[in-house]
């Protein structure tokens, strides 16, 4: 009887040990698998703390404007912009706008959104970026399918070129109609804004004082069209190069100058070799910082 009892105890002991080791094996291999997962991006807050896509969505649904700063040729960013737009549209009414479309092409864009012209016609009558078909057309087509307004916010590039060559004064020579495609004159300008100072430093003075002015007239015009087309109880999502809104500068600065009480969420994009931790140089670049793996495929 005693031997039988001891034998049962041994069997229970070994069964428990087998179960314990089996659980350890599962945990070990699960950890290995997780370590081998390839994650192309992560999201951090301005202080460098990891945050989530869901928190980004929640914050964006409570704001007036989202400035989604991108790297123009980054496939992950373009995918995330589309997914973000789709998901936010389920929570709030939207207005969309983009740097990549110029204000004097708004009429042609509207005709496309209404189904009056096909893509082939839009290609011929609007100045579309080389990567429009892969990176921005999906956003425009989503707006078209959902009847969401899409605003061409950028100044016609030839006007920015005029500023680069001759300063803001060159804009005074434009016709009354041409002046309707940009922010009202005179353009407010602060040469000491960090983004413009950095631009001059990186270019080592090449291009002269007019280089940041050409950037500023774009920022001012994009902010103008965002403010003009924003609607109450909606979120305006604006897609722009991240340098146009990084460090609460550029478009962000112009919007706040016009409407100090406006609620704005900024998203900056940075590339890093290691995406598990935000590099300190990117702290406070935006409310949310999207860190993308450096090896992500470029779209052009």
Backbone structural class: alpha/beta
Order of helices and strands: HEEHEHEHHHEHHHHEHEE
Calculate Rg over CA atoms.
Answer: 26 Å
What percent of residues are in strands?
15-25%
Terminal CA distance: 80 Å
Number of helices: 11
In short:
By secondary structure, this protein is of the alpha/beta class. It has helices at 2-36, 53-60, 75-89, 106-113, 119-125, 132-146, 157-166, 176-179, 194-202, 210-229, 251-258, and strands at residues 41-45, 50-51, 65-70, 93-102, 150-154, 234-241, 264-272, 288-293.
Can you walk me through this structure?
This protein is an alpha/beta fold. It is 46% helix and 17% strand. The chain is built from eleven helices and eight strands. The protein has an eight-stranded mixed sheet with strand order 2-1-8-7-3-6-4-5. The protein starts with a helix and ends in a 7-residue tail after the last strand. The model is unreliable at 4-10 and 13-35 (pLDDT under 50).
